[in-house]
Amino acid sequence: MHFGQLVGFIALLISLYILWQIRQILLVVFAAVVLATVLNQIVRVFQRFRIKRGIAVAISVILLLVVLVGFFALIVPRLIDQLQQFGNIMPIGLERLRSLNNWLQNIISDQLLENIRGLRYLTQGLQDWLNRLINNFFSLVSSSLSIILGLLLFVALTIMLLANPSPYRRGFLMLFPAFYRQRVDEILKKCTNSLTGWIKGTLLTMFVIATLSYIGLLILGIPLPLVNAILAGLLEFIPNIGPTLSVIPPALLALNEEPWKIAAVIGLYFGIQQIESLFILPLVMKSQASLLPAVTLVAVVFFSSFFGLLGIFLAVPLVIVLQIWIEEVLVKDVLNNWQKKNNR
Questions:
Q1: Interhelix angle for 53-74 vs 145-163, to 10°?
Q2: Which of 255, 275, 272 is nearest to 123 (CA)?
Q3: Tens digits of residue pLDDT in 209-253
């Protein structure tokens, strides 16, 4: 290996190490790019009415703030009230789950219980897990300075990218050779369209899932329908894993009512997921890059392992962007052309 190659290799390793150390900041930057990309579509709508870009940006940001403030003003007070009720009701449900566990132990043979030993310890750890989750949540919200700083960085970057995106786009294009910049610009446009379609489809899906869950839980008479419906909508943001986790709280609350309601809650959520799969997803997938379920599941697990909570929520947009770049650059521009040259 020549000296120049050795220096280049060491520089690459140092660059990778630095990128790994600032990975959380890079994720915040990526989140700001995604939000700015989506808001930019709204800005362009206003610009079609011959409104100057600065004014259009201000209107778009104000509209977003109005929606957020309206949500917090209308929903959050009821949500906090129901969360307090949830904290009071959940121990009763866990106690009933323990009673059910004891009843099963009395009627099931010791040999069978030995084969399903995990059932014996299931309810013993639920209360401790719930307490840790609540304590960690409140400590995270109340005392984490890094989250506040990250949020401020996210908001500032989003506004700056939205106000004048052209210099940042040109700067990114300058990282590539001159002959390839037009191609990169086309790839960026495709990423923009896919991300916009994804966020539109995701918001629509979250709203529909939350609405159907709220109506269904009201009909079944499950306590705290608003909390569970909002939780089901928010967890829809996490593909594959989120919908499965969303059924656990209402199922536990159903223990405080009648036993048949547990099966009714599971059936309700299963039916809602079927509606999503048959009607909502085909409509949504028309405007975004198609992602295989196994790929999204692996992506959520992978990014959550390396990047934590932020990685869970950004897993899908990261996969969308990576998939487009791999298809366009590696497959179309490299492998397909390489195959043509070899055939000659």
A1: 150
A2: 255
A3: 999 999 999 998 887 788 788 888 888 877 767 777 788 878 877
